[in-house]
């Protein structure tokens, strides 16, 4: 394809999210040397860059959006020999593209996650990846999980829910945040400005605005790449019937390394908030998400925004 240099308007917070970047870079540095790596949803090419810098044998960078695939190509070819990587502007979930992968994949990388974890098809990507994986594959991350915070009564029922997608004020790539000066040097020329977006009120909150919870349900949901059944649906049972507010605290892990989304810079940090009245149990069902490639009849790209809440909540009342 013909490559050009798009701006980084939609990626400034991701590229500058130092804590998030460090989670990936630390895991990649200790895992990919002399391995074949697949980066699905490469975006700016940040994870592919980390993998090549850490000594990966070969990297496939897959990106469905042609502009993002272009910036991945720009970043990688400016810093590494082109014989060590290949940028593929394809739909990874389309099985017809599997013949494009000459090598079995040892390490699967992906940062296709959002405030609700699964909106960008993380589970579907795991299923598709396993069909071209080597016998001893690993995934970074390898686990997604949710802690549920509980606040008693109705004290969070009437919050001013306008904080979703608050602006960071970052308008350029900052070298310190990328963890490698070559990334900043290559991307800086293409970074123009950060788009200001205004959203209507919805039930998402900045974690910094929330009070301490009255109770925490740790690992209410855990989904691991090696699970036979990968489902984002889960239930909670309470000790008593009452009114409460619940919040999803999302996190991801690689081995014993865990990072909480609420601590990040990018807008994946926002917390889904649910008000439930007079119930003793609740079930969270993730809608608009196919769980297996054979069921891929609808888009998994229902992004969590103020206009869209991807969770369906069912109570016993």
What is the arithmetic mean of pLDDT?
80
* Dominant shape: globular
Radius of gyration: 20 Å
Structural class: alpha/beta
The amount of helix comes to 10-25%
Would you give an account of this structure?
The N and C termini lie far apart (55 Å). It is globular, with a radius of gyration of 20 Å. The protein has 317 residues and is of the alpha/beta class. Helix 2 runs parallel beside helix 3 (46-53). The chain is 18% helix and 30% strand. The model is unreliable at 1-7, 160-171, 191-202 and 289-307 (pLDDT under 50). Strands 6, 7, 8, 9, 10, 11 and 12 form a 7-stranded antiparallel β-sheet that branches.
Sum up the structure in keywords.
alpha/beta, five-stranded parallel β-sheet, 7 helices, 12 strands, 18% helix, disordered N terminus
Brief summary of the model shown:
The chain has helices at 12-15, 18-29, 46-53, 66-77, 122-130, 175-178, 181-187; strands at residues 36-40, 58-62, 85-88, 105-110, 133-140, 143-152, 204-205, 215-224, 234-254, 257-260, 271-286, 311-315. It has 317 residues and is an alpha/beta fold.
Write the layout of secondary structure elements.
Blueprint lengths: L11 H4 L2 H12 L6 E5 L5 H8 L4 E5 L3 H12 L7 E4 L16 E6 L11 H9 L2 E8 L2 E10 L22 H4 L2 H7 L16 E2 L9 E10 L9 E21 L2 E4 L10 E16 L24 E5 L2
Parallel strand pairs: 1-2, 1-4, 2-3, 4-5
Antiparallel strand pairs: 6-8, 6-9, 7-11, 9-10, 9-11, 11-12
């Amino acid at each position: 394809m013909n490559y050009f240099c798009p701006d980084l308007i939609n990626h400034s917070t991701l590229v500058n999210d130092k804590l998030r970047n460090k989670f990936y870079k630390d895991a990649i540095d200790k895992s990919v040397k002399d391995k074949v790596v697949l980066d699905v949803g490469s975006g700016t090419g940040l994870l592919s860059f980390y993998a090549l810098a850490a000594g990966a044998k070969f990297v496939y960078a897959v990106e469905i959006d042609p502009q993002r695939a272009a910036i991945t190509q720009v970043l990688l070819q400016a810093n590494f020999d082109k014989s060590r990587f290949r940028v593929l502007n394809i739909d990874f979930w389309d099985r017809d593209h599997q013949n494009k992968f000459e090598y079995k994949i040892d390490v699967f990388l992906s940062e296709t996650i959002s405030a609700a974890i699964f909106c960008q098809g993380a589970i579907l990507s795991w299923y598709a990846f396993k069909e071209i994986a080597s016998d001893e594959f690993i995934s970074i991350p390898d686990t997604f999980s949710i802690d549920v915070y509980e606040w008693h009564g109705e004290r969070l029922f009437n919050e001013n829910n306008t904080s979703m997608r608050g602006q960071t004020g970052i308008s350029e790539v900052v070298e310190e945040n990328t963890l490698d000066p070559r990334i900043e040097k290559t991307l800086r020329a293409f970074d123009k400005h950060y788009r200001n977006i205004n959203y209507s009120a919805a039930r998402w909150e900045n974690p910094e605005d929330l009070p301490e919870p009255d109770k925490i349900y740790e690992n209410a949901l855990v989904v691991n790449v090696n699970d036979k059944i990968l489902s984002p649906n889960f239930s909670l049972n309470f000790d008593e019937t009452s009114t409460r507010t619940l919040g999803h605290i999302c996190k991801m892990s690689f081995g014993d390394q865990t990072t909480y989304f609420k601590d990040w810079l990018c807008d994946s940090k926002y917390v889904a908030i649910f008000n439930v009245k007079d119930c003793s149990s609740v079930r969270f069902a993730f809608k608009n998400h196919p769980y297996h490639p054979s069921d891929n009849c609808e888009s998994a790209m229902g992004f969590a925004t103020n206009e869209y809440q991807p969770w369906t909540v069912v109570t016993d009342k």
